Every structure is written in C-alpha cells, then in structure tokens.
Predict the structure.
Amino acid sequence: MPKKVLISACLLGEFCRYDGKTKKDTLLLEKLKDYTLVPFCPEAPSLGTPRERISVVKIDNDYRLLVDSTKKDVTKLIKNETYKVLNKKFDFAILKSKSPSCGDKTTPILNTNFSLIGYDDGIACKILKDAGIEVYDENNFKG
Ligand code: SF4
C-alpha cells in the first residue's frame, strides 16, 4: 500500500491561495510520485478564493488569525476546517511554508500593531502537530 500524505492543496497545483494563484511545486510532486496525496486547504472552504490576506497575531499570549484589512477574527473557521482532516487516515503531512495557516515554524507572527515579532507554526500546522502528526514543508521534505 502506498503511503498517504496530507498535502497543502496549493503545492499540488490547486488555485486556492488568497490571491487566486497556486504554488505548484513540481520538484516536490516528483518526490511524491509513489505516494497517495490527500489535498488539504484550511482557508479556501470557509473564506473563499480569492480572499483577503490573513495573518497570525499574538493576542494575550494566544495566536489568532485576523483578516489584515478588517481585523476580523477567523481563527475558529480555520481551526474547524483543520479538525475535519484529523479523521482522515494519512502517514504524515507536507504543508506550505510561511502561510498563516500551514507554515511549519516559518509563519510570521505579528503583534497587535501588525509588526513582526517572530516566526512559529501556522494555526493548522499546530493542530496537526498537537495531534501527533509528523509535519514537513516543501523545503525540508527530503523524500
Ligand atoms: S491555506 Fe495552506 S493550502 Fe490553502 S492556499 Fe494557504 S498555504 Fe495553500
């Protein structure tokens, strides 16, 4: 049985990024040609595509996902979308670096003035890791 991999849908070639574009990674897909790929995008189903840009903001020692332009808090939507995939069976995950939802230690973390204060896991990545799932990104997955 080929191993099953949960993968950010934009890396697969889906046009699900906030700007309506994709981040298809052909080198990564070549490494994964013998795996069964399970597409995952925690933002597009609830926020639509294209959509306003969102960021991780540290508020009272908690990470929240806010829409940059309106400051609307969409954390719950993204978390709920991520909880749904925990029921699917897969061996590990490969998520898009730097994304507020998917980043693996590469997500910019902002303060309430929207100034950069560091880098950490995106909101969906953190949920997967807390569930015991091994997470890579397109840069550190060796194949
Ligand atoms: S939320 Fe993740 S899968 Fe969806 S477009 Fe952003 S990086 Fe890609």
User: Anything to note?
Assistant: The two ends are 17 Å apart (CA to CA). The first helix runs from residue 9 to 12.
